[in-house]
Structure formats: structure tokens, C-alpha cells
Design goal:
Helix content: 25-40%
Structural class: alpha/beta
Shape: globular
CATH topology: Arginase, Chain A
Strand order of the largest sheet: 2-1-3-8-7-4-5-6
Number of strands: 8
Number of domains: 1
Distance between the termini: 24 Å
CATH class: Alpha Beta
Mean pLDDT: 96
CATH superfamily: Histone deacetylase domain
CATH architecture: 3-Layer(aba) Sandwich
Number of helices: 10
Low-confidence stretches: none
Length: 310
């Protein structure tokens, strides 16, 4: 694998944003697209990251997208010819800007993966589009950034094993449908047993959790799930750090507090530190109202990351 250099200092690490891709959505749409700009602005305002560390992502190439997606689906999104019945499950209004942003979101994670392999840690300030399948999109996810990035570095023989830790409240059915039967990828998913998607696709290790689970019960379940994975020997970790596990989240079913999510992230970063392998992180879901609660939860994840990678 490529990662051989010591971990770089926090202020030397690079992160990738996508909020320069503006997507028109109807007023009152429940997908909070403004959160990506708000997270970036807050990270800089609170001096967690500098402007120089945040790089606007460029669009992913067709070649890269087709590593994980069918040509028919790709061109349906590109040309706006996807039938309404196939567009509806995505939950986003089609536009040329949506296509561009979806490419940018994938390349943001590809870039984070490249930088993690070199520097030890990197992240995209969006992404974690784990509901996108090879031939269709779902749940606000058009193209699958984890699947494209995983297949790219595996095909290039830059790594031999990838561990995906998916802690979004929703199970990553797209990750599982594309990568779930491979033996060079291992997917751990902790998610709401009775939450979207209602037809789950099996991961390598699924931990379905009941509604209204609290901090203590959740952290106990995560610890139990991570413990046997210490012997997995991955070359890189992909972390889907969704904060829709927050009690106030409108699309979540858990009762985690800010402190509980901080401990969750600390547990994941401690696990990464134990394995001494690089990590690429994606923002994941977050749909609390007011949106300031989601922004605070995402910022807390970055504050914990800074503790570990400073």
C-alpha cells in the first residue's frame, strides 16, 4: 500500500469542499443543502481549519463513476433522461447543477482518499452517499462516493483491504449492494433497525439498533462491533460520520446527545490510531432543526479529529 510516511500535522492536512456547486432546490425542501457551506464557514470561523486547507473539489471523471455505476444510469443522470419513477427515490430535483455537484461530491472523497493514503488523514466536507446503487440512486444519493473510491484504489492495487465504518443512522444499502459480497472490503454498519432504508441490503457486519437508544447503549454496541475488527488488518478506513444519530434529528430514530456523538467519534479515532492505518472521512447525514444543531455536531467531529491528528 502507499501509506508509508509519518502522520502530517493537523494544519498540513487537506480537506475537500463541494458547496461551490450550487444546486437549485424547491423552497422548503427537506434536504439541507446549505449545511455544507455552513459547516465549511464554521470550521474556518472557529479556526478548526484554515481556508488554505480546504480545497474545492472538481468533478469526477466518467471513467471513475463507471467503476461503480452502470452506463445507463450514469447517462440518465447526465442527460436528464432518467424516468420520473427512477428519479423520485433520490428525492432531489434533477438539474445540470445536480449532475455537476454529484460528480464533485464523488471526487471530493476520491481526493480525500488520495490524501489520506499520503498524509494519514483527510476528509470531504460532504459525501457519504451510501444509498446510491450501481443502477439507481436513493435517499439524496446520486453516485456512491465510497464505492467509486474503494474500487479505484483496489483496481490500481494501491491497497488490498478496505474497512468501511458506517455510523450514519441509516443503513448504507448502496455500499452493501455494490461492495457487500467482496472479500477485499469489510463494511460495518450501525443503524436504526426501523429506519430508512426499509429494505436493507446485508453488509459484512450489520448492527441494527432499536429506536430511542441512548448514549450508553449505543457506545456499548459500537465497542462490541469494533473489538473483533482489530484483527482485520485493513490498509485504509473509510469513515461515514453521519450525525443524524442526534436525538433532535428529524430523520433519525436514536437519542444520542452531543456528548455521545463525541465519544462515538473518539472511539473510532482511537480504533484508527490502534491500527495505525490511514483514514478518509465523509460528513454523512444530519437533518436537525434548527440546522445549527447539525452544524454543531459536525464541528464536534472535527474537533475530536483535531485532538487525534494534531
Amino acid at each position: 500500500m502507499d501509506y508509508t510516511s509519518p502522520m502530517r500535522k493537523w494544519h498540513e492536512l487537506k480537506f475537500f469542499s463541494t458547496d461551490h456547486f450550487e444546486v437549485p432546490l424547491p423552497e422548503g425542501h427537506r434536504f439541507p443543502i446549505e449545511k455544507y457551506r455552513l459547516v465549511r464557514e464554521a470550521l474556518v470561523a472557529e479556526k478548526i481549519l484554515s481556508d488554505e486547507q480546504i480545497i474545492p473539489a472538481v468533478e469526477a471523471s466518467e471513467k471513475d463513476i463507471l467503476l461503480a455505476h452502470s452506463e445507463k444510469y450514469f447517462y440518465g443522470i447526465k442527460n436528464g433522461t432518467l424516468p420520473e419513477k427512477e428519479l423520485r427515490p433520490i428525492g432531489l430535483t434533477w438539474s445540470p447543477q445536480l449532475f455537476s455537484r454529484s460528480l464533485g461530491a464523488v471526487n471530493g472523497f476520491i481526493s480525500a482518499t488520495e490524501n489520506a493514503l499520503r498524509d494519514g488523514f483527510s476528509a470531504t466536507l460532504s459525501g457519504g452517499t451510501h444509498h446510491a446503487h450501481a443502477d439507481r440512486g436513493e435517499g439524496f444519493c446520486v453516485f456512491n462516493d465510497f464505492a467509486v473510491s474503494a474500487l479505484k484504489i483496489l483496481n490500481e492495487k494501491r491497497v488490498s483491504k478496505i474497512l468501511i465504518i458506517d455510523l450514519d443512522v441509516h443503513q448504507g444499502n448502496g455500499n452493501s449492494s455494490i461492495l457487500g459480497t467482496r472479500d477485499d472490503v469489510f463494511i460495518l454498519s450501525l443503524h436504526g433497525e426501523r429506519n430508512y432504508p426499509f429494505r436493507k441490503v446485508p453488509s459484512h457486519l450489520d448492527v441494527p439498533l432499536p429506536e430511542h437508544i441512548d448514549d450508553e447503549e449505543y457506545l456499548r454496541a459500537l465497542s462490541s462491533a469494533l473489538s473483533p475488527l482489530r484483527y482485520l488488518n485493513p490498509d485504509i478506513i473509510f469513515y461515514q460520520a453521519g450525525v443524524d444519530v442526534l436525538k433532535e434529528d428529524k430523520l433519525g430514530t436514536f437519542d444520542l446527545s452531543f456528548e455521545g456523538i463525541v465519544e462515538r467519534d473518539r472511539m473510532v479515532f482511537e480504533f484508527q490510531k490502534y491500527l495505525q492505518v490511514p483514514m478518509a472521512m465523509a460528513l454523512g447525514g444530519g437533518y436537525a432543526k434548527p440546522i445549527a444543531l447539525t452544524i454543531e455536531a459536525h464541528l464536534n467531529t472535527y474537533k475530536v479529529a483535531r485532538e487525534f491528528f494534531s
